[in-house]
Amino acid sequence: MEKGDHCFNFREGEATITLKDVAILTHLPIDGKPVCVSDHPPEDRDGMPGWVHFIHSHLGVKVPVKGCVDATDRMPPMRKHQVSITWLTNYFRDHYESHPLTEESPEDEKERYARVYLIGMIGGVFFSKKSSNLLSCGWLRIIFSSWEEMVEYSWASACLAMIYHNLSNV
């Protein structure tokens, strides 16, 4: 790596962020498959656009595409191949208040809440775009894969790439 590659000038001086830094701070795995996201939508089914059907089949939520605007987002919950993280987490927060999880809650209900939490972490923390709170639906293919498959990815490498991308844009 040449001097200046992925180095950023801060008030304290020049600094770089390494893969080891990301792994230590986030506890994300370094080794594994690369994280690759494709926005190519699934086939339309049951009269619903592909991504809307995909989300509905995994979370039991029919995300409105048109005519519904989230008061915090000022945009529809679903836009092209992106879903509003705020709309989805607010939906589940409201649902949770009226149907709190307990030890006796069905496993599929617990899993749905865990997947929504992951959507918030991936789209709002590790791979966020500060210009919006929209998550590319391509991430959903990974988030809704099996738990065993999800841990096979090199999440720290993808997170570092996103950090470099965002810092380079600044």
UniProtKB/TrEMBL annotation:
Cross-referenced InterPro entries: AminoTfrase-like_pln_mobile (IPR019557), MAIN-like (IPR044824)
Ranges that cross the membrane: none
Domain of life from the UniProt record: Eukaryota
GO biological process: meristem maintenance
Domain Aminotransferase-like plant mobile, first and last residues per copy: 6-169
PANTHER family from the UniProt entry: PROTEIN MAIN-LIKE 2, PROTEIN MAINTENANCE OF MERISTEMS-LIKE
Name of the protein described by the UniProt record: Aminotransferase-like plant mobile domain-containing protein
UniProt organism field: Linum tenue
